[in-house]
Amino acid sequence: MAKTLPKTDVVIVGVGWAGGIIAAELTKAGLNVVGLERGKERKTEDYFMVHDELRYSMRYEMMQDLSKETITFRSHDNVRALPMRQYGSFLLGDGLGGSGVHWNGQTYRFLPYDFQIRSKTIERYGKDKIPADMTIRDYGITYDELEPYYDKFEKMAGISGEANPLGGKRSSEFPTPPMKKTPGIQMFTEAASKLKLHPYMMPAANLSENYTNPDGVARAACQYCGYCERYGCEYGAKADPVVTVIPVANKTGKFQIRTHSNVRRILHKGGKATGVMYIDVTTGEEIIQPADIVVVTSYVFNNVRLLLMSELGKRYDPSTGTGVVGANYAYQVVKGSAVGFFENKQFNTFAGAGSLGISIDDYNGDNFDHSDLKFIHGGVISLSQTGARPIQNNTVPAGTASWGPEFKKQSLHYANRTLAVGAQGSSMSFKQHFIDLDPTYKDTFGDPLMRITFDFREQDKELAKFLAERCNEIVKEMGADKVDFLKELGPYEIMSYQSTHNTGGVIMGAEPGTSAVNNFSQMWDADNVFVVGASSFPQNAGYNPTATVGALAYRAAEGILKYRQSGGLLV
């Protein structure tokens, strides 16, 4: 029989960026908050002198154990989905801080177009520009309305950068200046300028200088060690929840973190949540935590899964297109890239940082005319110097043997003679792409796994090819002697890494018929449940999602405090 604990004001499911931000804001306002995290505790000291590529990059030290819980995947709904048994396309973080600990730190704001994509596309090109089975939606909030929350996130995290010349208006400058320009970044800047494009330094959660944020949290500047993605930062220079918002919540004395706590159900009655049921995975004990407000802030798949298993919200039915929970799954098109090989130039690419780079948005959003193109939206194009670690970086020209003397010779020759310009394309939502509960496979507790149904469509293939050609133009202008670039995008396959930017399933909108949450991340069907994260994106933009997740978390925290005072659905 489950043990029932004393009631708390708020229980948070998942203590990553969204959960940490909300915990900090609510406890500062005097609420008692319990944070349930299914992974282990983490602290900066865990990463002192641990630049171990084999342990972290290749053996996925910081990721979810797929033998205990994974996802299943299929490309369309008339085939059986199979479990993902080894990591490939994306990485599922585990532990306190979540994916916010092992991210690269690339912190773009979405474009104004992204929040009103359906209405703006129809306004410029007409309804026929949107395919009948494409289910893109406006967010129910505009960029201008969300801008103050972006600003708050950037100041908390100490984001380094400079204004995007083609982005939305800013209320203030970045709190810290851009990171250093390497020779490769300078080459990109000059080439893009010659092509009449608009380069700007990538917005970075890697501090360019020592910084103290508005909450009084002081952190040291980045050392350009090149160990960001898949690693915790030993300096605390990379903004993550463990070194920014979680300490603020802890300092109030009103935040209780329970690690190794796997939430299995949201308990509810009469249209309101009453708390959650979780398992203490160290003892196997089943525990009920009552709460006035339930905030779901875990990763995309678990947000959706928890609602489906708890029977909260209207389940999406792909055959009719009705229902909302599980709808509008989207990913990212990140295969539009070009690699330049330079015979007479060498670069110190072993040094770097997760978000050290230069970008252009000339081909992102609706910043260019799509009238004669077979796709909408676009993507950011960047040259990033994230640190070429030795095991995973063996770039050789196309046509080189994949093993043997020729491979070794070319690997050594081009070890410091390559630069890559990559495109991160948007992902539009379609009726056929969704997340639901797998009818066959279960986790270690006997609960069904999440099932993804997704494949690249003509929209994605045309977009990837277009962006790859633009990358090729830039690399050629940079003076590369040889350029390899994507010629055609094949079917989506789950084994080669692309990005961890999964989105959708609990989407945001202005009305309950086509969305699961309002623009405060409050569920239409249970007003004391807030679901925060990239699960609320109705489609994915041509950027990394974290800054938008952070901004929506600050807005949700504001909404929770309003709800606490007055109750009911927020407007």
From TrEMBL:
Residues 221-330 form the Glucose-methanol-choline oxidoreductase N-terminal domain. Residues 435-553 form the Glucose-methanol-choline oxidoreductase C-terminal domain. Keywords: FAD, Flavoprotein, Oxidoreductase. The keyword Nucleus does not apply. GO terms for molecular function: flavin adenine dinucleotide binding; oxidoreductase activity, acting on CH-OH group of donors. It comes from the Bacteria. It holds the Pfam family GMC_oxred_C. InterPro entries: FAD/NAD-bd_sf, GMC_OxRdtase_N, GMC_OxRtase_C. Belongs to the GMC oxidoreductase family. This is GMC family oxidoreductase. It comes from Paenibacillus paeoniae.
